[in-house]
Amino acid sequence: MHSDVAPLVEAGKISQEIGERLSQLAPGQYCLHKSWGAGKVLSWDIRGGKIEINFEKNEAQVMGLQLAISKTEPLAEDHFRAQKVDAIDELRELATKDPVELVRRTLSSSGGSLKIDQLERELIGSIVPEANYKKWWDNAKKQLRESRAAIVPTKRTEPLVLRDESITPAESLIQDFDNARDFKAKAKALEAINKDFKYFKDNAEAQQAINASIDEFVRKGMKLHLGQALDLLVGRDELISASEVMELDASALRLSDVIANEGERIGQELSSLAAARQRLVFEAYPAAFGDAWVDELLAIFDVVGPRGLAEIAKLLIENEKSTELFSFLRSHILGRTLGADALLWVCRERSKLASEVFDVEVGNAVLSLLERDMMDDGPRKSSRLQSYVMEDRELIVDLLEEAEDNEVRNFARKLHQSQIFAELDRKSLMARVIKISPMTQELVNGDAAEKEDDGVISSWDSIARRKSDLEDLTSNQIPQNREDIKIARSYGDLRENAEYHMAKDQQKVLMRRKSEMEASLSSVQGTDFSNVDTSIVNIGTRVSFKGSEGEEIVYTVLGAWDSDTDNNVISYLSELGESMLGLKIGDSVDIQRKSATVTAIEAYNA
C-alpha cells in the first residue's frame, strides 16, 4: 500500500479495500479509462480529493479521486496500452522495423489472443497511420506466418493467437495441422508443412502421423467435399515426393483411386483449386484409367472451369495427344455443344494452342451458345464470353480472315438478327464485320427499312413461369441480399471483408437479372399455339424427320422461352429452329452435320 494512503487506513478514515484501490492510482501508476484510453498518473492531492492523469486520447485531465476510482481500471506497467502512453515513439519505430514484435507485444497484453478488428483498434492512428495500415498489415501477416510467432486466421471473425514460444517450429506446424477442423484449414496447414519441410526431413514418425491423419480425414469427408479432399491428397503426395522416409502402404487412399471411383463428378469439384493443383490431379488420370485416360479427361473438359480446361489442353498437347484434343473440340464446335469456358479458351488461344480449330465456325458456335443462354431460365453462364466478344476488337477480324464469302454472309446475318447484344453493341460488332467484308453492308441497309420487331413469342405457361421467377427475385432474393450486405457490413473493416464484397457482387448480378427480365417481359407476345399452319414448319408445330441413315427423329418448334432440349423441344430463335422454319414435307436440312428430310408436320396443340 502506498505510504501516503497507509496512515488513512490505519486511522480508519478509509477502508482497506479503498486504500488498496487508491494505491493503484498513485503517481507513476497506469490506468485505463473506457473513453480516454490508457493513462499515467502525474500527481494527486489526497486531502483535496483531486488527481491528474495523462491519457493517450485526452492528454492531462484533472479528476475527482472518487470519480477516478469508479471510472478507471488498473493497468500493469508492461501492458501494451501503458507503453502507448510512455513509449509511443518506440512502438511506432517497432511498427516499421519489427512488425512481428509489435503484434507479439499487443497479443501478450491481451491474454495471447485478439480478433483482427480489436488489433486494428489498438494500432490504427496511434501507431500505424490509417492510410498505410492495409499495406502494413499485409506485410505483418506475411512475417507472422514465416516467423510462426502467431497463428494468423484466414477469416476476420477468427482470433489472432500468440504461439507458445517453448515449442519448436515443427511442433507448431503439427499443432496447426492437428487443430484444423475443416478441409480448407487442413490444406493450408499442410501447405505450411510442405513449405517448411526442413523441420520434418528426418522425422519419419511425424511424417507418417501426418499421412495417416490425411487418409482418415479424406475418407470421412470425401463424399461431401470431393474437391477439397483432392486438394489435400495432392498436398500429401507433394509431401511424399519431398520425403526420403515416407511411403504409402498398400491400404492408403491414393489420388488415382479417388479419380477412378468418382468419374465425371471430379470435373464439377475442381474449379475452386489453383491451376497447379488441378494439373496434378489431371496427371493422375493415366494411373486411374490406363489407356482410356484421354477420353476420361475430355469427358470433364467442359465442366472443370477455365483454369482446369486450360491445364487439360496443355497436358494433352505435351503428351502428344493433340489429335484427340482437336478432334474433340472440332466435333463439339460444329455440333454447337461446346460450353462458354471452352469457347472462351479457344478464342483466347486462337493464335497459339487452339489455332488448329479456330475459324468462323467458332464464331457461329459462340453466337448459338449466347442465344441459348439468353433464352434459358436461370443465371447467365456466358457473361464473360459475351464481354470478351465485345472487348477483343481483333476477334471478329480473326474469325472471318479465312472464311468464304458465303460463310461471312451467314455469320453476319446471324449476328445482325441476334437479340443477344444491346443495339449499340450489335451495331459496333456489325461495323467490324463490314470493315472486313463491305458486302455485308446490305444487311444493315435492308434492316433500316424494315419495321422494328414487336418482341419474341412464347407460351403463356413460360411467360407465367418467368413472371413467377421475377416475383421471387424481387420479393425474396433481392431483400435477402440486402440483409446479407447488412450482416457482412457488421463484421467490420470493409477493406478485407470478403463476405461484404461477395454480397455486393451478388447484388449487381441480381439487379442486372431483374432489369433483363423486366425488359423481356415488357415486349413478349403470349400464345397457345392454336390454329397453326401445318403446311410448313411454323412456331407451334411438331416435325418428324428421317435421317440419311434411316433413323427417325421428332422436333417440336415452340416459343423463345419454351426450350426443353432433353425432349427435343427447341426455340424458334435457336439456330436449329431458324433452319427449320418454312420447311415443307420432303425438304431437307442439316441436323448436327447430318442431312435429314421432313416426313410429317402436325400441330403441337392438336
Describe the structure.
With 606 residues, this protein is an alpha+beta fold. Among the domains are: 6-76, SH3 type barrels (Roll); 87-166, Arc Repressor Mutant, subunit A, CATH 1.10.10; 321-450, no CATH class; 458-522, Orthogonal Bundle (Helix Hairpins), CATH 1.10.287.180; 541-603, Roll (Chitinase A, domain 3), CATH 3.10.50.30. It has 29 helices and 15 strands. The strands form four sheets. It has a five-stranded antiparallel beta sheet with strand order 4-3-2-1-5, sandwiched between helices. A five-stranded mixed beta sheet has the order 13-12-11-15-14. A three-stranded antiparallel beta sheet has the order 6-8-7. The longest helix has 30 residues, at 460-489.
Key terms:
Arc Repressor Mutant, subunit A; five-stranded antiparallel β-sheet; 29 helices; 606 residues; 15 strands; alpha+beta; five-stranded mixed β-sheet; elongated; SH3 type barrels
> Runs with pLDDT <50, length 5+?
448-453
Rg computed from alpha carbons, rounded to a whole number of angstroms: 35 Å
Characterize the biggest β-sheet.
Answer: 5 strands, antiparallel
Q: What is the average per-residue confidence, as pLDDT, rounded to a whole number?
A: 88
Number of helices: 29
